[in-house]
Amino acid sequence: MEMPLQSSNYNPSRETLGRYSEYSLHSSYKIRAGDAASTNSVACTTRIPYATLIAALLCCTGIGVFCFTMYRGVTLSALMMDQVFHLYIGWLETVKTILVLIAAGMGALTLMIIFVGFLATGATRRRIYKAWRNRVGGRISCAVFMGIIYILQFFWIFVFGLLIVSTFILTVFWKMCVSTQVQDYHQCIDLTQFNFLFPQSTRIEYLKICEIREIKFFCRDFVEKSEFMFMMATFGVILILISLVHYLMCLSANYAHIRDHEKFEELQELQLLQDTDFATSKERF
Length: 285
Known about the structure:
By secondary structure, the protein is mainly alpha-helical. It is built from 9 helices and 2 strands. The model is unreliable at 1-31 and 33-37 (pLDDT under 50).
């Protein structure tokens, strides 16, 4: 007849042994229903890559704000060029298509990084990356995504610089619109000093806005709205840059976890053997 282990100061119980080993190795050891539920809930929460999800939330928010505000700003720019300066700039329509492609590309990249994060987190990592080939593939995937994110950082820093310059120019235009000469004395808005910002085919007389209707359209319908749109787009790019930094940190941590997974397994096995030997030696006395 099998005698159960008794809990005492010198004899470890089955619960003590169960903490350091799989309960499947001890067929007579049973887990209570409440303990099993809590264990399953803890196991599920440890498989979620919270840092990667936070970075994905920041990235999606930044991409959404940037693409929406830039699409609106480009549309206003096309209307302003057509109705105020009598110019048609065809590449503005291409910019709209590029914005849609940027949103789709960043969204796909976010989904792939989240997938890699789930594979490299918690018990999922211990199950997926047991084999040597799987660990090599995981490390290569993390390294490839780190390279892509690093390149994207330079791209978004360049976009951030362009938005800063554009927002500054629109702020200067708005200061001209709300100046005393224009508001009280109804003087013309002279943009000839900014002729280098316009295409060479722009006629000089179109750079002087004198009619009240054109002043209203230029100031209220374009400059005021576009300045806000470009400010929000700049804020969206800041969120994107922060999320890219978070992605780099998460991918670096995942790379290290996958690389050192075999060492962690060996340490756990050594700890299990030491604890088992310690419990056996205590039973002798």
